Amino acid sequence: MVKIQGILSEHPDNKNYGVRRMQAALARKGTHVSLRTVYRTMSESGLIHRHRRPHGMIWQLRLPSFCIEEIRA
Asked: Are 58 and 20 in contact (CB under 8 A)?
């Protein structure tokens, strides 16, 4: 837990470390632990964020215009 807090304190403007990113950062520092161990430690410490969903993009913006015309017809 101390090493995870150390990595988070290196970048105070970015607290959005996921489990995989944290595991990679720990491995770069020389601490090789399993993904499950990192997840459990971050979860117990309240460092897991909810998954973000994109807002504001409607399905019509993702489709080409000719597809929209076919759907409306």
From this structure: no
CA angle 36, 30, 21 (to 5 degrees): 45
Looking at the structure of the chain, the number of domains it has is 1
Give the range of the structural domain holding residue 28, as residue numbers without chain letter. 2-72
Q: Is the pLDDT of residue 36 over 80?
A: yes
Cβ of 46: how many Cβ atoms within 10 Å?
7
- Burial of 33 (C-beta count, 10 Å sphere; 0-12/13-18/19+): middle
The answer to whether the beta carbons of residues 4 and 22 sit under 8 Å apart is: yes
Whether 13 shows a pLDDT value over 90: the answer reads: no
Q: How high is the pLDDT of residue 26?
A: 93
Candidates 42, 5, 72; CA nearest to 34 is 42
